[in-house]
Amino acid sequence: MSIEAVPNEPTNHSHDNGVDFAAPPLASSSIRFACNSGFSQNTRFCHAQFFPQPVFAHHVSTETVFPQSYRNRKRRERHQNRVREKAHLERERKRRMIWNQVCRENRLRENQAQEQELVPSNGPPTLDGHVRIGAINMEKSNPEKLEQLVRLASRRNWEIVVVSEVSPTSRHHRQPIQQCRHWKWEGWEMVHTGMVGVLLNPSWSAAWHAYRAPKHRSNTGRVLSVALPCDPSTDPLRRPSVWIVTAVWAPISTSTTEELDEFWDEVEHAASTTELAFSPSCALSSAISSNTLHMVAGDWNAQLYEDPAEPADVLGRYRPTARHQVDDYATCRVMALGRWVHADSHRPAIGNRHRGTWYSAIHRRYYEIDWMLLPRAQLQRLVSMTLRHTTDDLQTQHSAKEYVFRLAATQARHRGPRVPRPDLSILRGTSEAAAEARDTLTHRVAQACGPDTSFDDFRRVVAHQTLTVCGEMPRSCRKPWLRSPAASREIGDLNTECVCLRRTKRELQQALHDTPDDASTLSQLDACRQRHNDLKKQQRCLLRSLERDYWEQVLASHPTQAADSFRFYKTLRTLQTKGTYKAARQNPFAPDEWRDHFSNISSQPESLHADVENFITTLPVSDHVRQWSLTLDADITDKEINTAMQRLRAGAGGGDGIPPIVLKTLFQDPSLASLIRAYVRRLWSTPATEWKDQGLDGPGLQVPLWKQKEPFANMDKWRGVVLLWCIPRVLAKVLNHRGQQWFETTDLPLPESFGFRTGLGTDDALFMIRRLDEEISAWQSFGWNETTYEAGLMDLQKAYPTANKLPFWHLLFHHGVQAQGPFINALRGFHCCRDYCIKTGPDTSPASLSAPYRPARGFGEGDGTSPWAWNVLYSGMVRYSLAKRPASAARRGLACGIPWRWHESMDLCSSWTRKNDGRPSNQTCVEVTVFADDTTLHGSRQELHQSDEHGSAGMDVFAQAVADWGSTEHPDKREVHTYGTPSRVCLVGGGIDPGEAVNRSIQRGLKCWAKIRPALKNSRLSLQQKGKLLMTFLYSGLAYSCKTRATRQRDVLRMQAVMNTACRYLCRTRLPKMREQHVNHSDLRALLGIPTVQAAMDREQMRWLGHVCRMHPGLSTTYAKTFARGTIDVGAFQRQASAHGGRISADRKSLPDMWVQLCHKHGLDENHLDETARDRDNWKAILDRRFAQALFEDRQASHRHMDTLPNPGLEPWSRPGDRRGMSPTARERKSELQRQRRQAAKAQPKAKGAAVPMRRPAAAAKRQPRQVQRHHDKKVYYAGHNQRKVSAEDREAWEYVCDFPGCGLKFETSRALNIHKGKANKPGGTHSQL
Fold it and tell me: Which InterPro entries match (predicted)?
């Protein structure tokens, strides 16, 4: 298609999209316009959508008429192609430009819509008498930004906004103005100086103008003060109450010293409220006094601190790379304002600390800005403060801050003088200073106290001498190694000289500024700088050495870190000296509110149900128990008191002012020890109602502790822990020891109860329920599905505070305990005659304590006698419920519990052998598992959870029985676990399912690592010491309850990955760096001196195995051994074929199977486990040798530490003989089983006329895979996957041999060998039968 151009036709073609195409001037009218044949119709249609003009106009080619000759034809074609390509590229560029502009507008519109959705429509409401103030930096603002600021303030209910760096009248260069200017928009008003401003909402703007708008502007315009009425609705004709808002903006870091001095002089002038000259004068300015509420906020461009004692370290990691401002100078100027403080600093009245930061894109650091100054007397009016980083709607890098003030003057509660607390860390440790402090304290108290000293005088003397010797606990000391006098003397001289040099350097800089060409001043300044740098280097080295020595003593003073890990962790937190650590959330309620809450919980009166009383009277009591009950009232011996003092934990002290660590220190002196024993015996013999009158006891301090469960502000998620006086604590230890021994001799304790009993713990409870889950899962994997067994977990609501003590007293009296004896008298003193005070603060000042109250029921949480008393009460409660549950199930035609059969010997065998073992065994029925107040009921699904017309479900029967005893089941904490199926149900902190248990362990380990990681950052500890801390905290969380579960290898690798992350952090390396340096994690573990997770877990599991082997069966405290060797007792069992699921899943390996592998790994024969584990020393030696072997193997896997440890030479145990060799015990058991099967087959009569089973057709037989021939006397073998027939000679020549012990099959190819291993290693494969 071609079109002839008309002569003199316009050559410019303008399109609707604004793109013009200009054609070159025409030489003659014979120029032709030809459509480019290189573009298809589709292409032209697409172009037409963007450019409405005809398509051929876009493909214009200028063709000059030349003589038709072949020599220039190619040249003309190349020229036309270049023109077409150029036009096409230009066309594509313009189209992309238009499309990108459209996309950019759409993207901006979508982002703005998303930001509007994220911002709440309405901010939090403002209370009456309160004002909500915002502080923000506008960063070279303009009118559009100010409109956005108004919208932001409206959404967040900011009534007044302090704005820094504001210039709404200039878009580009800020012009200084000499007067304040006003900017109004939609009723909001901004008064500004070109530097700073104050934004008022419509109501405050109207109230301000009603008093003639008083304001004060500094000379530079960097300080602006506005006087406002406290109540916007006040009548202007009356004398109002006034408050002042001051906005500031400091000069930038490039400012001169004169500019800085001028600015801080203006701030100091604004801080003197009475000297401010507000114009115009009005009723507000005349009402200003020294007590007027005044706040100064804005962008200081500097880091401000209240305590400049350590100017080198006050900034921490927030100090920028390039000094943003003269920090020391700013600090000194702010400190000159005597009665002003930083409202963002930590204050007990506020309770927390917030930092205002902004991010510098240049230095990639966070700077501290926007601090607010407030008179110290007005600090009580600051209700709250919030740091808001989400200011994207203003397109600013700075943070916004929000303050809520109480405008009306309120009378704050008189807090009273702060009670000084002694620094008890001086007494801890094995250093010479700690020993000297303990000796000094003991000597001074012994001199001041005699044999006839009353307990009140003894308390006062001990409290005074402890405070004198140990010193007062500093409010915040993040460097405890600087507390000692020696360290203070060493570092004090350097600090003094550094301060002098800093002052000299500042004076020289000022002199050099006046005379820049003075060579002597310049040389003196260089020498001063050099000396200052040398002193700072000496200071850093001294601090490092002091810190290293201190922590070496701390670690040496904790030889048993696992036994007192909580106290050790509290000491470890003081390691964190760099940066900021996450402050704990403060108690949100007052002491009186907690008092009302706890008193309401225990306010219900106690009662005794008639059925419960009848049940208690029917309990059997032997004469031995009655005789033992009489010994409870015997006099307390010195041995009992000494044992109680040894078991006394060095925790928090009570209301008597004697911490437990001080009492343990004083007990080392013989004279003071006899005095303390006399106090304990006096308390034992005194009636409980007279303890308080004689000064031997006082109100217990009840401290609310959060259970780490959300929501934080819910009082039901808190627990009130009781702190007793020191002498009652010792007596409680004596009573608890006597009561525990008496409890174990009675018939009350249940074998299934594992809480608060000697030798039992969470591992026993988890071991029992996990073994049930493993065996039922194994039976189900073999094809058994007759009954669905489940576990129902229930919890009591506020078990200790709501305990009904009347059944407890009846149980004691029924078992022969004398009602009028001193034992019952002491118990009544602890649980019936004691008052409690709520303590919410760090000291015992009146502001931290509530009024005393006395609960009507319950046991005190934290009381030394409460665990034993609860075991007595709950054991009777469970026995009462177990008597009712079988009767209810019998009426419904059901059975309770899970049947279990077991053997006493620890003869380990496979799951298949345990299910087909016909030897005589012991039978039992598992109905319940108890740990403290956590109860787990076992049984079938129908019996536990399904009710019918004949009776209630087992869980409901148990809950009703518990209600008869005065307790209540928690309505929201009933859980169900179906045995043999994965679930997320956990018991005592550990998951029942192995996968869930590993997930919880990993989460627990990560939380522990998140807590200790900040403390270990930049610490001066050696790598070996860091490795010990890692094993103490991180591994303990990862390996929780690992000894009672069969952990898969994939889960071990997951836990090892967490440990490897911590190792890399402590060694300050990363994976790419390790690859470059050819270092692996074995090298890191060698540097830290720690083993692998697998080696440590193997050691714990073998310790547990030895503990189970040494248990004596038949005792109530060794019930866990029942589940070590046994399975569920569900009668005869026929295994299904593997094709129908009759095999054990690889994910559900049982604990006995893992024990067999561990025994082989430790070089032991599982058939002689009882004899080997009976000798504790020999068992420990075996475990130590295997642990050393694991360390050696880990070192061999490293690159740089291969020769650091010797080889212990431990070889894994294997069966003697060939692959079919058996131990004598296993061979005898196999023969016995074969004999029993033959006898059973002979005894079974054959039915007459029975159909003869037909043989399988040959066609079906061909479809079955041929079995591998294992006998060497045969001439034909089948090799691997292709089933090819070969001879014995050919098979012997094959080089691929299976390395499994006892197999030894040969294969022609590696693929055939891998296929054989994959099939034979599965559960039920050929390798499991060897």
Answer: Endo/exonu/phosph_ase_sf (IPR036691)
Tokens of 1016: 């270990």
Task: Spell out where 1118-1242 has E strands.
Answer: 1126-1128
Which residue's entry shows tokens 């054991």?
Answer: 875
Lowest mean pLDDT among 172-176, 539-543, 598-602, 864-868: 172-176
On the 0-12 / 13-18 / 19+ scale of CB atoms within 10 A, 844 is middle
- Mean pLDDT of all residues in 1018-1036: 83
Per-residue pLDDT at 1087: 92
Residue showing tokens 């103005």: 177
Closest-CA residue to 246 (of 228, 230, 229): 228
Distances (CA, A) of 115 to 111, 120, 667: 6, 10, 67
Q: Which helix (H) or strand (E) holds 442?
A: helix 432-448
* DSSP string for residues in 445-478: HHHH--TT--HHHHHHHHHHHHHHHH-BPPS--S
- Surface-to-core class of residue 1300, CB atoms within 10 Å of its CB (0-12 exposed, 13-18 middle, 19+ buried): middle
Which residues pair with residue 935 across a beta bridge?
A: 794, 930
- Spatial CB neighbours of 819, under 8 Å, sequence gap ≥ 6: 809, 813
Percent of the chain residues past pLDDT 90, beyond the cut: 26
What is the rounded CA–CA span in Å between residue 683 and residue 659?
19
CA nearest to 683, candidates 454, 442, 449, 448: 454
Query: 1208: burial class by Cβ within 10 Å (0-12, 13-18, 19+)?
Result: middle
Instruction: State the first-to-last Cα distance of the chain, in angstroms, to the nearest integer.
Output: 88
Least confident of 559-568, 889-898, 922-931: 559-568
Helices 805-814, 822-831: axis angle to 10 degrees equals 170
Q: Which residue has the tokens 């023969």?
A: 1231
Residues 203 and 192: beta-carbon distance below 8 Å: no
Residues 307-345 have pLDDT tens digits of: 333 333 333 333 333 333 445 566 666 666 767 766 654
Amino acid 332: pLDDT? 64
Q: Please compute, for residue 520, the number of CA atoms within 13 A of its CA located in the half-sphere on the CB side.
A: 0
Query: What phi and psi values does residue 212 have, to the nearest 5 degrees?
Result: 70, 20
Nearest to 437 by CA among 425, 452, 447: 425
- Dist CA 885 CA 878 (whole Å): 10
Looking up tokens 């004692």 gives 309
Pair 422, 483: CB distance under 8 Å: no
| Residue 875 contacts residue 750 (beta carbons within 8 Å) | yes
Q: Which of 722, 426, 421, 721 is nearest to 571 (CA)?
A: 426
In this predicted structure, what is the pLDDT of residue 363? 43
CA distance linking residue 301 with residue 447, whole number of Å: 58
What is the rounded distance in angstroms from the CA atom of residue 953 to the CA atom of residue 944? 5
Task: List the strands of the sheet with 836-838, edge to edge.
Answer: 718-723, 700-706, 836-838
